[in-house]
Amino acid sequence: MPELPEVETVARDLQRWVAGATITDATVRWERTIRHPQPPERFAAEIAGATIRRVSRRAKTVLLHLDDGRVMTVALRMTGALLVTPADAAPDPYVRVVFELADGRQLRYRDVRKFGRIGLWPGGGLRSVGGGRGARSRKVAEAGRRYRIGEVFSGHGPEPLQRGFTAARLAERLRGRSAKLKSLLLDQSFIAGVGNIYADEALWRARLHPLRTADTLDARDVRRLHRAVRQVLREGIANRGASFSDYVGADGEPGENAERLAVYRRTDQPCYRCGRPIRRIVVGQRSTHYCPHCQPEPVASEPA
DNA sequence: ACGCCTACCTGCTTGC
DNA sequence: TGCAAGCAGGTAGGCG
To answer: Which end of chain A has fewer beta carbons closer than 10 Å to its terminal beta carbon, N or C?
Structure first.
């Protein structure tokens, strides 16, 4: 469900509302939500007493940095949501983990489809992951060996909104790849944070057909793609995310970006640029929306 | 490296 | 109306 803009929205909400809050207790209602390396049965005891110092995001994962240096990771996957509620809020059958806060509120992890995972990691390992540039990939690899946090993040590609993610960097990553653009954008080891909605939106904006392969892009195509990816993600954040069935911010309110999407789930509706109907195809098992006029079919002999 | 498949889960929509 | 198939924003693991 949530992609980078939605997860960023959740992390910012939580930073505002629960930074400084102390977790007094936790109840795990669906054990498989608690992922390795923390055994679910010890999770509540491990987290009790911890104070949330800061909340941030890496890829599509929310990071709750605890006072003692440990980090709780929350991967929302398809239907996960983190909600801050009063203690007397109505019971909710889809809440899988409840965190009791010292001030009486609850932090609830709600997840209809149960795909999401919560981890609790030792201190030290994640610090280098969140913000750094340059030598970051090596640091992450070291952290991975010592803390196995590599399982969470070492396989992820660059953060597309970080300053270091330039058009040149994207061009370098595209070089020699023969994969379809749609599949590459969804590949978290290629770029972190883009999912099905924003991949379609970025390709429409860049006027690139989802089935074009990376090695057919010229320098101008790459610049358009780079700009489009960053624009759609930034606009998504500005609108507090795109909500379909399940996504809500930590305030429980849906985002406003869904109504601003140009192609996603707009099959047969007119393209905002040329008025021709948006088409839906399936690429790599994922539904894919594009404008057949603005995003021309790939042809065999494109400039390399 | 890539594409394809299966699995993880539940609920909503669609079509007969 | 009823029911089954199909669909959903994500990712991991396996195979060829």
So the answer is: C
